[in-house]
Amino acid sequence: MSMMATILEVRGLTVELPTTSGWIRPVNDVSFTLNEGETLGIVGESGSGKTMLSLALMGLEPHGARHSGEAWLASKSGKQNILASSADELRAIRGRDIAMIFQEPMTALNPVLRVGEQVAEAIRVHEPAAGEKEIQHRVLQSLERAALPDPQRRARQYPHQLSGGLRQRVMIAMALAAGPRILIADEPTTALDVTVQKQILELLAKLRRELQLSLLFITHDLGVVAQVADRVAVMYAGRVVEHGPVMEVLRAPSHPYTAGLLRAAPRLVREKLIPIPGSVPSLTALPPGCSFAPRCAVHIPDCDSAMPQLRAVNTNHKARCILVP
Predict the structure, then answer these.
(1) Distance between CA atoms of residues 152 and 228, nearest Å
(2) CB 157 within 8 A of CB 142
(3) What is the arithmetic mean of pLDDT over 110-118?
(4) What is the mean pLDDT of residues 266-273?
(5) pTM to 2 decimal places
(6) Which of 96, 164, 175, 230 has its CA 20 to 30 A from that of 155?
(7) Over the range 42-79, which residues count as b (16 or more CB within 10 Å of their CB) and which as e?
């Protein structure tokens, strides 16, 4: 891959939330870069912190949360640290520089507003000077770009009149309406059946090429990552436990958790699926040392003494495991 400019650089991002048993860290010292026109897959089970990571990057983390670290965005107006931006600055960034689509469009769409009106609103927010005719033209353009069949008729419909796959296309149209350069997609195909899932993934790949989009693709599904991503970061209990080029990580995982996820993932060849025993630890009761140790098949006593550092497998590939040579 040619040297691409970095569009997002996250350094030591930690998000803490207050609970009755003290502060917990759903995102714990996470660092990564996202380059122009690239897709980075972020993979993990529920409870791994991947959704909280995306909300922090949008400035949408829950009330009472506190964060540290940096997230440098190369925006249209220069470099800025999202985590140090004011509410007004964040409103300007959201949609214009960085946009997000969610797992369930029904919760993100307004049930009582026509679809076209919601896309129009996404444009108006960032371009108050645009005339009505121009906005309506852009609405249809956005719906067409998201491959919504018969956009003029669809624009007049309400979300409940559309299928799940079409609602997801409306979400994509809204997210891209103001021309952001980064799209965060949080499990965008999980609620859809396999055929529709494939169409949405193909659409995102096409838009990424045509619009030179940088995509942060969040999922629990390694099969999806293999289809869409250039690089992958695997999260567990709030931390990145492995990251590297997607094919290398999937072919030769260096962290036992990634290897376990692969064994548990359905493939085309009917192999026996082996689920990882146990579950993601509660953030209020993390084990000493490596968070994955209690579930790990290659666990040795040293694993419990300290949280392992990310160790280099090679220049592009790292894993948080003391067994990495």
Answers:
(1) 30
(2) no
(3) 94
(4) 65
(5) 0.91
(6) 96
(7) bbbbebbbbbbbbbbbbbebeeebebebebbbbbeeee
Domains of the chain by range and CATH?
6-97+180-319 (3.40.50.300), 108-178 (no CATH)
Maximum average pLDDT range among 44-58, 98-112, 224-238: 224-238
The 3-class secondary structure across the chain, one letter per residue, is CCCCCEEEEEEEEEEEEEECCEEEEEEEEEEEEEECCCEEEEECCCCCCHHHHHHHHHCCCCCCCEEEEEEEEEECCEEEEHHHCCHHHHHHHECCCEEEECCCHHHHCCCCCCHHHHHHHHHHHHCCCCCHHHHHHHHHHHHHHCCCCCHHHHHCCCHHHCCHHHHHHHHHHHHHCCCCCEEEEECCCCCCCHHHHHHHHHHHHHHHHHHCCEEEEEECCHHHHHHHCCEEEEEECCEEEEEEEHHHHHHCCCCHHHHHHHHHCCCCCCCCCCCCCCCCCCCCCCCCCCCCHHHCCCCCHHHHCCCCCCEEEECCEEECCCCCC
Tokens of 62: 């829950």
